[in-house]
Amino acid sequence: MPQFKIHHVTRYMYEVPVRDSANQIILFPVKDEYQTVLKQDLTITGEPALDVYKDYYGNEVGSFMFADPHSELKIDSRIEVITKSRELPEDSIPKEEQWNNLKAIKYQVPFIDFLKQESCEVVHEIKRDTQVGQHLQFTPFVAVQQLNEYVYKEFQYIKGVTNVETTPDEIWKLKAGVCQDFAHILLVMLRMTGIPARYVSGYICPNRNGMRGEGATHAWVEAYLPAYGWLGLDPTNNCFVNDLHVRLAVGRNFSDCSPVKGTYKGTSNHSLEVGVAVSYEDGNVQDDHATILTPQPITNGQQRSDENSYRRYMEMIQQQQ
């Protein structure tokens, strides 16, 4: 069972002191039979009170307010986690029975959100190019592998051509992007076939495997298969998700799983640094670090979380790996 130490730092530096910083963080690893969190140390500038609760999808979410004037806000998470491998589906049930089981759960509450298609104008193009109807001649397990491989082969992994606001239509036309884009396109395809699919955020922690997205925040997909449950698929690397992936959150899409987001009052002139380091039991370290300057105008002295650089660029850096 692999054991990892992950250090994730988000740091904002402001040109002049700001105040009333209200934030939400989803930086708490999932705790279940496949993932054991040995330790987590979370430190935040000013040591504000942190309210931790479970959201609709079962993710641990923290919220805090830092009202005093401050020139820096640093969110520092250090975790130690053990992951456990899981067996893949045996896939022995007849394909007709499996597809019928998927039709039967279509309107059940746990799956409705993960079958609802996002607004997508190129649905007909996706159906044509991926031959979605043809997947019914295979089992759902084989179908999800084929679609995962399609995204991996047909889309180029290029940083900087997209951001968190890039739509599935734009991703499809670009045929390029990063992990979150690969995940969003695969979500569209899986839901189109009638397979519930959810977005997953976390870290990928390979040791000398050279996988894309390693040592940074990462994104992938989980597809629901009858008689098995949620199967993790990483279209960025064309692989199944197993003990080298550390899960943070699940949701309908990126917006449900953003590691950090919030608002504050004050200047828009600030710099942002985000760094992730992963260390292994053998002492090797993978790290990724980025800095972005984001001077932006503000309205009425306050930046809003849904339309300003504070959220937009932070989220882009958090997941554009």
Key terms:
9-stranded antiparallel β-sheet; Transglutaminase family protein; single chain; Immunoglobulin-like; alpha+beta; 2 domains; C8orf32 fold; 16 strands; 21% helix; 7 helices; disordered C terminus; 321 residues; 5-stranded antiparallel β-sheet
Instruction: Please indicate the count of domains.
Output: 2
Mean pLDDT: 85
What is the beta-strand fraction?
Answer: 35-45%
- Per DSSP, the total helix count is 7
Head-to-tail CA distance between termini:
25 Å
Secondary structure category = alpha+beta
CATH topology of the largest domain: C8orf32 fold
What letter string, H or E per element, gives the SSE order?
EEEEEHHHHEHEHEEEEEEEEEH
Pfam families: Bact_transglu_N, Transglut_core
Organism: Niastella caeni
Protein name: Transglutaminase family protein
